[in-house]
């Protein structure tokens, strides 16, 4: 290891998004000297802006966030509760119905705005003695060898560490710099998200309506408010984004058959291009990918952050085991175990989600028939439904 103690750490984490911060939080209070490098300024970490994303959290994530002390930071009046979910196909009245009342769980999951998760994640690490944050500075380069990693920053510093973690988004530049390729799937679609209030109650029910070429998801937030997610072909998104708040509200209300009464737009419209990413490998010498940098999911199945959090916990527990055994935390064996475990969980979710997207955006006649059949099969075959509900409600130990 080099002889620059001030800039030498056990772990450098690139990116203080929800995944990077959650990973750091898992290692709070250990003997590891950790630094996070984030290009956004500190004010943004302290007070992240509303970004339209509302994150559906599984029971497993809820338990993890409670264990990490983040859950207490979520204001009660910002927690949406999902008890039922209904999937509709085009104009057909047929519904695939998931109901927590028919299971041992009280609810399917909670819905929490992304900026609240980001703020809670930052608060959970900001006072930790073993974790420091360099904000407003970009990582320009990363190299590693068998003894250490070196991370070059935009302010001229070079940090050294036993292990480098890249949690720098699905468009990770450091993944590329480290020579790790990724399967990227451009869905050719844009998702537009916002929040709307309404005059009729949502009864804690989430709706996913697959119209031909356009998907509308309405997810229950606290009170008479819902998160609205419209997915449509990229070339059609400008028209929607150009609408006035009243025009947009009228459009959503009409598409949803006015089931929630009069609707009012209460946030900006936030567009996100839909690109799925699956890294060819999650680790290389003294380097590991985390969160969306490892797997960037299509949001339709709401797995992204849930999966990132799971990965963060998996790697943190391998590192803690290495610490307990006196093993090098950046050893290939430690990283290899994380990779094997996380890929086993991530691959089926990634492939399954992409197959679902394909099925529900196929506008050909056979595609529509297949989609109708899939919904009916989902209802008829109890194992399919119970597996999906189990995935949402089970808690990892
Ligand atoms: C519309 C939408 C809805 C979603 N809904 C759900 C849901 O219901 N459930 C769910 O689980 N997930 C959902 N997700 C996914 C979830 O938002 C992401 O999985 C999660 O935010 C990824 O976190 P991350 O920390 O990996 O990456 P990011 O949030 O992208 O953070 C990466 C961080 O790295 C920083 N960074 C990047 N490059 C550098 C650099 N070179 N130097 C320094 N810093 C850098 C960035 O500034 C950023 O802060 C949704 C996503 C979208 C778009």
Structural write-up:
The chain has 397 residues and is an alpha+beta fold. The protein has a domain of 201 residues: FAD/NAD(P)-binding domain (3-Layer(bba) Sandwich). Helices cover 35% and strands 30% of the residues. Strands 5, 6, 12, 13, 14, 15, 16, 17 and 20 form a nine-stranded mixed sheet that branches. Strand 9 and strand 10 form a beta hairpin. Helix 1 runs parallel beside helix 8. It is elongated and about 65 Å long. The mean pLDDT is 90. The structure holds flavin-adenine dinucleotide (FAD). The site of flavin-adenine dinucleotide has 33 residues, from helix 1, strand 2, strand 3, strand 12 and helix 8.
Question: Which structural category do the helix and sheet elements fall into?
Answer: alpha+beta
Q: Report, as a whole number of angstroms, the end-to-end distance.
A: 36 Å
Low-confidence stretches: none
The proportion of strand residues reads 25-35%
> Which small-molecule ligands are present, each listed once?
flavin-adenine dinucleotide
**Biggest sheet record:** 9 strands, mixed
Helix content: 25-40%
Mean of pLDDT: 90
**Number of strand elements:** 20
Q: Determine the CATH superfamily of the domain at 5-50 and 114-184 and 277-360.
A: FAD/NAD(P)-binding domain
Described by the principal axes of the CA atoms, the overall outline is elongated
What's the total helix number? 11
> Based on the structure given, which CATH architecture of the domain at 5-50 and 114-184 and 277-360 is correct?
3-Layer(bba) Sandwich
Counting copies of identical and different chains, the oligomeric state is single chain
C-alpha Rg (nearest Å): 22 Å
CATH topology (fold) name of the domain at 5-50 and 114-184 and 277-360: FAD/NAD(P)-binding domain
Task: Return the CATH class of the domain at 5-50 and 114-184 and 277-360.
Answer: Alpha Beta
């Amino acid at each position: 290891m080099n002889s620059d103690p001030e800039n030498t750490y056990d772990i450098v984490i690139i990116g203080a998004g929800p995944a990077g911060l959650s990973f750091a939080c898992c290692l709070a209070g250990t003997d590891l000297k950790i630094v996070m490098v984030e290009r956004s300024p500190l004010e943004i970490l302290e007070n992240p802006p509303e970004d339209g994303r509302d994150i559906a959290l599984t029971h497993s994530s809820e338990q993890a966030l409670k264990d990490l002390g983040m859950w207490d930071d979520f204001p009660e009046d910002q927690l949406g509760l999902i008890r039922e979910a209904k999937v509709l196909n085009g104009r057909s009245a047929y519904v695939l119905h998931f109901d927590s009342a028919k299971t041992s769980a009280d609810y399917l999951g909670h819905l929490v705005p992304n900026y609240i998760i980001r703020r809670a994640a930052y608060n959970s690490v900001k006072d930790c003695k073993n974790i420091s944050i360099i904000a407003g500075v970009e990582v320009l380069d990363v190299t590693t060898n068998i003894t250490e990693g070196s991370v070059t920053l935009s302010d001229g510093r070079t940090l050294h560490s036993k292990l480098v973690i890249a949690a720098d988004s699905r468009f990770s530049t450091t993944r590329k710099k480290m020579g790790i390729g990724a399967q990227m799937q451009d869905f050719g679609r844009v998702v537009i998200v916002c929040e709307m209030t309404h005059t009729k109650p949502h009864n804690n029910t989430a709706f996913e309506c697959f119209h031909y070429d356009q998907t509308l998801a309405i997810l229950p937030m606290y009170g008479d408010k819902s998160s609205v997610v419209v997915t449509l072909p990229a070339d059609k998104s400008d028209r929607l984004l150009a609408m006035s708040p009243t025009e947009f509200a009228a459009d959503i209300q009409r598409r949803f058959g006015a089931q929630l009464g009069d609707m009012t737009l209460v946030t900006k419209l936030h567009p996100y291009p839909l690109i799925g990413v699956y890294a060819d490998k999650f680790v290389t010498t003294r380097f590991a990918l985390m969160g969306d940098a490892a797997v960037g999911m299509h949001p339709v199945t709401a797995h992204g952050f849930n999966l990132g959090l799971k990965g963060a916990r998996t790697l943190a527990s391998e590192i803690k085991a290495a610490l307990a055994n006196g093993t090098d935390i950046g050893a290939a064996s430690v990283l290899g175990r994380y990779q094997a475990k996380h890929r086993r969980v991530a691959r089926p979710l990634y492939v399954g989600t992409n197959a679902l997207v394909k099925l529900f955006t196929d506008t050909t006649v056979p595609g529509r028939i297949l989609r109708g059949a899939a919904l009916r099969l989902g209802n008829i075959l109890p194992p399919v439904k119970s597996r999906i509900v189990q995935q949402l409600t089970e808690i990892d130990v």
